[in-house]
Amino acid sequence: MFSLKGKVAFVTGAARGIGFSAAEKLAENGAAVAIADINAAQADESAAALRAKGFKAIGVSLNVADNASIAAAVAAAAAELGGIDIVVNSAGILSAATIENMQRDEWNRVQDVNLGGTFFVAQAALPYLKKSAAARIINISSLTGRNGGFEGSMSYAASKGGVIAITRGMARRLASFKITVNAVCPGPIETEILKGYTPEAVERQKSVILLGRLGKPEEVAAAVCYLASDEAGFTTGVALDVNGGAFMG
């Protein structure tokens, strides 16, 4: 099950955290992966770590808030790996600004990366996805995009809610090309992004998780791998919750 042999995955924000776990899980199941990240050096290091395990992986420099960077990264990955079958939009930034303190520059920065990056990476990859026999777009949203969140800013909530909206919109519009588009909505996960919260804020988030713990990046990666698989060929427009019971909808 979940064999991805012969497929190519382009994973954004993949130098570490959820993105890297997703790339590693895809590679473990046979996919060649492009580790795309704004930190080019770390992307190369993460790709090298996968190659050391016998997987096919390359590092690619990518700024998802810049369309020229997106176009160059997608083209480079497709040229080196022989196309693109799977796109995982994991690149994202956190904001914890309050409603009272949010500034327009920060609002726009979060939207550019989390929402705009998701859309424009998918757009740039479309010419390659349309050539694939089993194309997949998998967008990483958030529990915050489902319920407005507990600690994150309204900009973060809006961006992640927007990711779910464009996931469903793209699923409708791209179905004729046999491209499935789904989202994964993690709850609080044990990654470096949680360092943007105070310990007290993290504990408050844990308190609403029915299973009583933070999630692991590998648990999100498993959901990504399923949605990338042939077994998920009849699944599109879904927002898959991986949150320990913090949200059921």
Keywords:
249 residues; alpha/beta; Rossmann fold; 8 helices; 7 strands; globular
In the CATH hierarchy, the third-tier topology is known as Rossmann fold
Low-confidence stretches: none
Integer-rounded radius of gyration: 17 Å
- Arithmetic mean pLDDT: 95
Q: What is the number of helices?
A: 8
> Biggest sheet, in brief?
7 strands, parallel
Structural class: alpha/beta
User: What spatial order of strands do you see in the largest sheet?
Assistant: 3-2-1-4-5-6-7
Inertia-based shape: globular
CATH architecture label: 3-Layer(aba) Sandwich
Distance between the termini: 28 Å
Please bin the fraction of helical residues: 40-55%
Count of DSSP strands: 7
Count up the domains. Answer: 1
CATH classification class: Alpha Beta
User: What would you give as the CATH superfamily?
Assistant: NAD(P)-binding Rossmann-like Domain
| N to C succession of SSEs | EHEHEHEHEHHEHHE
